[in-house]
Amino acid sequence: MSSNKTTWINGLDSIRFVLALIVLLSHIHSPFAEALKHSQNVLVHFTGIFMEHLFSGAAAVAGFFIISGFVIHYPNKDKETLDVVPFLVRRLVRIVIPMIVIGMIASHYNQYFALPLWSLYCELAYYILYPILFRIKWSWNTKLYVSYLVCAVFVAVLLGANAGWFRGIHFNGRGPYWQICIIFINLPSWLLGVVLAEHIDKFKGAVTYGKLWLMRGGAQLLAMATVVLRMHYHINYTYSLIICSLFFYKWLEAEIIYHRNHPAGSWSEYLGKFSYSLYLCHLLCLPLVAHFLRLNMYTYVLYIVLPVFISYVACLLIEWPAHALARWLGKRIA
C-alpha cells in the first residue's frame, strides 16, 4: 500500500473490474446453464442450476458501494477539514458527464440505459452527504450505527408504501419515494467503506492466500444466496444485501491487506480503470450485439467480449476526458 494517501490502493481496480464483469454476466442468460439444466443426468442438471444462480449483479453493486466509500474517505481520513467545493466538483463531474454523454448517444435504447442509474443516483447522493457527515464530530463507527437505524426506518417506509416491493412481486407505481428510500437503505454499505478506510492502516497482520480465497468463496456463496432468495422466495435484493454487505466488508478488508505485499497484476488493474464505463454501457451494448448475433453457446463469449471492448472505447472517448476535466476544475477551484 502506498504511503501517499491520494493514490489508489493496489488491487481495488482489479476488484472493480471483476464486479463490473459480474454485473454484465448477470444480465446475460447463459446458454450453457440452460443446456445443462435439461440434462437427464442429475449431476449435470444441478450443475446447470448452480450456473444459473452464479452471478448476482446486485451483490456486485453492494461491493461497489463499499469500495466507493473507501476510496472517497481514505485520502481524507487524517484531515481536519475538507475542501468541499473542489471535492464535489471533482466527484460530480467525473460521474455526471459520462452519464449524460452516453445517455445522449444511447437515447434510442433509453429503457436499457436507465436500469443501472439507481445506483449512480445513490453515489451522487453519498458524495453530497459526505462533506456533511465529515463535519459531524461523531466517530465514523457511530455514524455507521446511526445509518443502520435510519436504514431500518426507510425499510419500514418502503414496506408500508409498497409491501409488494419486499416480495419482489411488482415494481410499478413505486413513485419517487423508492429512490429516496434506496439511497438511505444502501447508505450503511457505503459507510462500511468509509469505516474500512478509517481503520485499514491499523491492521498490521497479514492475510494468507488460503484465507483470501476462503473470503472470496464466502462472498460468492452469499451473492448466490441473494439470487436464490430473489428468484425462488421473492425476497428483494434490497433487503438481503443489507446483511451481505457486512461480510463483503470483511472480504474487501482481506483483499486490501493481502495486496499490500502481493500486488495485483498490471493487466487486471488496467482493466479496472474503465469499470465505470462497463457498468454504464453494458446494458446498451447487449441489444446492439443481439442485433447482429443470436445468443448461443458459440456466441456467448462475444456477448462478453464485445461489451467490454465497446465500454473501453467509451472510456477512452468519454470517461477519461471527464476525469481530466474534473481534475483540472478541482485544481482551478482549490
UniProtKB/TrEMBL annotation:
Q: Which UniProt keywords are listed?
A: Membrane, Transmembrane, Transmembrane helix
Q: Mind telling me which Pfam families this protein's record contains?
A: Acyl_transf_3
The yes or no answer to whether the keyword Transmembrane helix is present is yes
Q: Which domain of life is it from?
A: Bacteria
**For the Acyltransferase domain, which residue ranges apply?**
10-318
Q: Which residues cross the membrane?
A: 49-72, 92-109, 115-133, 145-165, 177-197, 235-252, 273-294, 300-322
Q: Name one GO molecular function term.
A: acyltransferase activity, transferring groups other than amino-acyl groups
The name under which this protein is listed is Acyltransferase 3 domain-containing protein
Give the organism, scientific name: Flavipsychrobacter stenotrophus
